[in-house]
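Here is one record:
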Amino acid sequence: MAIPSLLCSLLIIIFTSQTKADVVYDEINLYHYVCDQDNNRGNYTTNSTYDKNLNTLLSTLTSNTEINYGFYNFSHGENSDKVYAIGLCRGDIMPNSCRSCLSSARTNLTRNCPNRKEAIFWSEDEKCMLRYSDRLILGVMEDVPMFSSKNENNSSDVDLSNEVVTTLLNNLTSRAVKGDSMIKYAAGSQPGPQYEVIYGLVQCTPDLSETDCNSCLVENLQQIPSCCNNKIGGRVVRPSCNMRFETSYLFYEPRASPPPPPSSPPPPATTNGTTLSQGKSNNGATIGIAVGVPIALVAMVFIFICIYLRIRKPKKTFEEIQEEEDDEEDKIESPEPLQLNFNTIRNATNDFSHSNQLGEGGFGVVYKGRLSNGQEIAVKRLSMSSGQGDSEFKNEVLLVAKLQHRNLVRLLGFSLEGRERVLVYEFVQNKSLDYFIFDRVKKAQLNWEMRYKIILGIARGILYLHEDSRLRIIHRDLKASNILLDEEMNPKISDFGMARLFGVDQTQENTKRIVGTYGYMAPEYAMHGQFSVKSDVFSFGILVLEIVSGSKNSGIRDEENTEYLSSFAWRNWKEGTATSIIDPTLNNDSRNEMLRCIHIGLLCVQENVASRPSMATVVVMLNSDSVTLPMPLEPAFHMDSRNLQDMKSWGHSSAQESVNGSSNTELYPR
């Protein structure tokens, strides 16, 4: 079976190289698909309401003749049976070809991902993409799944080629992000080495904001060196954007972005108006047909053999792949592959030098370090008396190791030697949100566009924890000091030492150990030990109000009176003076958007748990101005350390006040 399979692969490569010049890729696939890679959306049963809604939705999408710009986004159904779908065609594909491609994608997707609630499909050459899910996917920038492939041929001038590719794709990115809600696409070319031409194409789903489209394409461009450097062609594809380049091969239709006109060949020599060598040309054509037809027939026979053998292959694409994915998840349960030598970390931080100290919290000190390969890291060295035991430590390692999202800080490793417990994270350049937002001078560096991006990024990170990760996770300590900012001011949620795992269908849990930071705690958690996803929603609401106002929730001074931010925002909202909440360092350009964020923040901090929106609803509210927001109710009372005696009367253990604004965590293991 292996020999015919190899023969098929070789044949496809030969056939492709004949029809597309020297485009020979390391992975030759007519299409690429992923069936719910995290395996957390579940399956649906045949003939169920979800199945009927999915079929209706995909049929509507692929038969719609009113859309002529190649972007389709629809939903159908209600509640847990609601289905969302997005179809995107490459910017140069004509409407009829687009619908034909999506129709074929529909057939392939439902065949290759049967009964899966979430799936995505890319056709040959990414001419179209089709995806569907039982969660909201419109307006959400998706990083994963991602795949890349390269042309196996090396460039004739590596340095010049890499420089031209980077410049070309950068320029195309700048053009594509300026697109509108119908198309975000750009294609073009630049001269390459030895009179060659390098063609490039970039595209985003047009439901993305300019910022998110740019972020997605920049992430793709950053993948080019690792996948396709020194090669004459390559591509990087994600659900929200794709990018490709080729040398001397025009892979898109020039009507969308015309390449430079080729130099005209010299006219044929003539004598008395008659073209010479006409008979020779006809003879050459006849010989070409005589040779080419048998070769084509042989190729077709081999292709049919390959298709037959692949159809007869054992059914591995579903059950076995599922088992392999489950095995991979099981492997994550063991943290040993992430374990680092303590001396390696000691050397990276210059023996935990005070000059490398980044901050200090309830659990210990965070240092900046540099590994021997030059990679910068952030090292969290837990203090001997931190109160975090081995179970809490392993909890953070196991939790964070499973989390992969652009708005969550990434765990690189850990060390557990003797009494030393150390966590190693990616280094995030711009410290934490509180370093900027609560400083009178530095807050001016955060204009409204940056603040809105931070709010939206935090919301997406929490939504991933609550609904889209392999696990349902309640963070329980969301606050400004736990939001790190990278070099582009993208937010990354950190500190999972007190996060709690929830079952898929679990909605609430009780604890006798109240942990976290006062001012961000939901009242039902602070007083009764009840926490849920809505506890994190409450903390997010406080964060939104802090970001818009530039003030801490711990108190706003008004002449001689002190008022907490949540009640201050509510009072001004109710009195029609909500603009008083806005940070005076912000200009008036986006005043309506600021007021909408205040509105959303107040909805999140309502005392009634059921009245608070879910994070999925919050993301929709932030992404769409057309969504009507309900009127908020009065927020919960502010919880701070002065309520400790009241809390003791409820019979709960009290959490100590944080050191330097960081929380002391006491995790109650499940």
User: Anything to note?
Assistant: Residues 31-133 form a domain with the Killer Toxin P4; Chain A fold (CATH 3.30.430.20). The two ends are 49 Å apart (CA to CA). The chain has four domains: 31-133, 151-247, 336-426, 433-649. Residues 345 and 351 are 8 Å apart (CA to CA).
